[in-house]
# Entry
Amino acid sequence: MPDFSFQLRQVSKRFVKAKETITIFDKLDLDIPLQDYVAIMGPSGSGKTTLLNVLGGIDHVTSGEVLFNGARVDTLNEGQLSRWRAANIGFIFQFYNLMPVLTAAQNVELPLLLTKLSSKERRRNVAVALDLVGLSDRSKHYPREMSGGQMQRVAIARAIVSDPKVLLCDEPTGDLDRTTADEVLGILALLNREHGKTVIVVTHDPEAANHAKRTLHLNKGVFVERTKLA
Amino acid sequence: MNQALLVTKNIGRRKLRTCLLLFAIFIAFLLFGALESFERGFYAGQNSAAADRLVTVNKINFTVPLPISYVDRIRDLPGVTHAAPQSFFGGYYQDPKNFVFMFATDPEAYLSVYPKIVLPPAQRAAWLADRRGIAVGRIVANKFHWKLGDHIPISSTIYSRADGSHSWDFTVDAIINLPEDSQRESIVLMHHKYFDETVTFGRDTTSMVVLTTAAANRNDAIEKQIDTMFANSPYETSTDTAAAFNKAFVGQFGNIALIISLVVATSFAAILLIVGNTMVMAIRERTREIAVLKTLGFPGPAISAQILAESLLLALTGALLGLGFAGLILKATEKFTESFVPGMHMTAGIFATGIGWAVLLGLVTGALPAWSGLRLRIVTALGRR
# Structure
């Protein structure tokens, strides 16, 4: 079994805007071991969100290789990437991105519609995921009936319900107060520690980075500092 | 939960908009169902005319009568199998509003020209033997609650009797049951002899001669033969197939089919724009959600299928309601309409055609949003660059 979740090899990302080629990062190398908890920090425009997009297979690299569990994912087509994401990646967004017309349980169940699980099995998995984030009693509530922290916990439940190996989090505490943010970060730490999930968090929040095992500082597409926390 | 629930949840997220859309589709298909049924009833005679049946009328137009002797002369032509006079009586029952499509004819000859009219032997014998007898179409009998043996006074808007009255007494001797030809079920037939004996003008004439030929492929030759025979006489004729005659007859009222097609096409074009535009707006509002679904691993074709399912469900629901309501209205008004447009009801064919149009409407209005959903780039939609 490979030792790494992700490996980036000489990865470059450029795009053209108003006839000008903009380089987000150039020949970037990065290894993220299995069960790592890594925070990626950096100023706005440093390329951290684009890096997360590349890792999640929702954006393509201009050159270089992206490997997941030792296999290249940058060469997959859209259909293959969809299946790969569904099987391996859980996404957590800053603004939760829940479906307003669905209840908490139905939102959590969404990724399971892509599996062959029976309705009963899906309901059981949803219950486990909601229990893990402490929202069993909110399963029938709609997003509009919940606080920001509760919605983010539903989003975490949705991200973990299909048991992915990696959680990609984009500013997961960016819209939360300190207490709620700490609760969410505690859940992410638990998922890493107890459930062996590889957690990659893009954040501006030093407190969020403190929960990670290590922090990468990205500036102008280059890792300028790698901090290993005790 | 399943993807079908997701589709219905998305449709129901803006209830007022969905209701207005459904109402617009409902109206379009209500119009379609009612007008198509009307058109079908209106052209029923044209469509039910036998291929070997011809109609001879005065060359001037069919309101100018022909001598009754023409019937025998036409019957004697080679290739003509049967011929019968048919004079329009212009009848009504009790009140001019209760219009009755009534014709004077030679009963035996008429039944030979229309062999599909099969009367029970006792009724046939009674009608043939009774000069005051009438054969009544089932629709007319039901409308006025006439039964066999009833004595019925029927007045004419055209003819009068020697005593100045406009009313004739008849006995219902036979009921015409012919479900596949609603036009025959909407008429009343009287004896031409009784008509001739009692009217004050128009004796020894007939409005038209209906005839059958030995084979449809001889129609052209026989038409020419008849019209040539009476050429240069005071009563020149024009002979055509029954289908062509019926078509020309309804053509007097204008090109109904074209008018109906234009009305239906206009309403459908309006609906296409309304539903299409609304679907595009609805999907645009959900761009971010679609991007999230794609991020979770929903493939593009599955997203497109969901969007198409939404537009199809909307179109089909509206169409079912519209066609169903049209059917109910036609059923409820059948008693009033069957005298004028017999057979004006929702048929399985019209219903199936309506559903076909609804499927097309759903696919066309959903196509652009579905294509947008398929092509949507996650990073762009989520504003992640």
Remarks:
- Chain A has one domain: 35-63+88-228.
- Chain A touches chain B at residues 15, 49-50, 53, 56, 58-59, 78-79, 82-83, 85-87, 91, 93, 97, 99-102, 106, 109-111, 113-114, 119, 122, 158, 170 (CB under 8 Å).
- Chain A has a mean pLDDT of 90.
- The domain at 35-63+88-228 of chain A is CATH 3.40.50.300 (Rossmann fold).
